[in-house]
Amino acid sequence: MGDLPKIFKAYDVRGVVPEELDERAAEAVGAAFVEVLGAGALVIARDMRPSSGPLAEAFARGATGRGAEVVDAGLGSTDLLYYASGSLGLPGVMFTASHNPARYNGMKLCRAGAVPMSAETGLTQVRDRAAELLASAPGGPGEEAHGDPGAGAQEGVRGGSGTGSVVRRDLLDGYAAHLRGLVDLSGIRPLKVVVDAGNGMAGHTVPTVFAGLPVELTPLYFELDGDFPNHPANPLEPDNLRDLQKAVLDKGADVGLAFDGDADRCWVVDERGESVSPSAITALVAVRELARHPGATIIHNLITSRAVPEIVAEHGGVPVRTRVGHSFIKAEMARTGAVFGGEHSAHYYFKDFWFADSGLLAALHLLAALGEREVPLSDMLASYARYAASGEINSTVADQAATVARVRAAYEGRPGTSTDDLDGLTVSGPGWWFNLRPSNTEPLLRLNAEGADETLMAAVRDEVLAIVRS
Description:
By secondary structure, the chain is of the alpha/beta class. The protein contains 15 helices and 23 strands. Strands 1, 2, 3, 4, 5, 6 and 7 form a 7-stranded mixed beta sheet that branches. Strands 18, 19, 20, 21, 22 and 23 form a 6-stranded antiparallel beta sheet that branches. Strands 9-8-10-11-12 form a 5-stranded mixed beta sheet, with helices on both faces. Strand 15 and strand 16 form a beta hairpin. Helix 2 (23-37) packs across helix 3 and helix 9 packs across helix 12.
């Protein structure tokens, strides 16, 4: 019947199907979502995983059972769902487990206008109400099943008017037109672009978004397949970029783009086949947005390179540093009216996209910038890559708090250093900084370090890891 306490995370719902997340749980979540939000209508979309369709249908049964109209957008990316929520003014749910392995699935929930839901802003209430509905359902833990022991699993959650309906609506063309309307690509030179969809939803959205652009597209793994037969749809792992890097070199392409399973993240490879830091992309898009909105605010999380706030300030913008996580980024963007925000994880957020993130919109900005210049991508981005970064390094620890305390004690009081606790522990020194954050779901500490050069960064990284792993 699902394991609601386990699958409801800080920002979404995610678990193994069917052991932790099944159709019965999805139906209860659908009913609870409508009740908690008081929603008369909502929109749903799903990725290509085999379990996504049945879970979405079960969720819709729960929602319509509470009298809501469900607009079913069918197959789509997470940012297509955000487009639907924003353009239709409806709360929405995306069925996806993003970059997680095939046996997982989940839900990303938002209020109308693509406003995110987190544990602090409604997700906990949805979880608790869904648990109540499951407990009182036929065959649930609060009631003995009678007759066929499997019959209860086929019955819906109790209550509600049952008068809602499902309306199917194709939103892909509208989504593509909206994205192209946000970036001027009319004057760009012809570009050779390789896209690795990883058998995820970019294989569904990229052809429509790129249609009519002066782009020679080389598709890799555009066939939708939730079993991910070629490689995991997680571009943050270097091994998953190998095929893209090779194709860029083989084709003499100008740029390579890699998307995760639900296509909300976009990773970039330059013409040399070299991976490009998301901090450089954040800085590039920030400069473009500041040209349109002089003096505007730009959001960056505390893991992005220090080059980002420097470049934003140099171009007359106001950099604002936030915690890691899309709900924090979106909330701070709404609070400050920021025009753009970027994360080290290749999530990019836009005010003119309802403060939501879109990997394809970031990709269009990159293509526009590159297409306006007669220089290679590596040259164009050289000024945005100022420092050496470690990337994110995970360490398993027995006691997260005690380990962080040991690291703090080792650095506090050193001449020229400072600390802050915005998100985990950040320590800054002359020409370097590092951040150490606990995972919310695993016994891990995540280290990110940056230095003026590779030698300094490595020294800082290794010293911190020696303490963490001792």
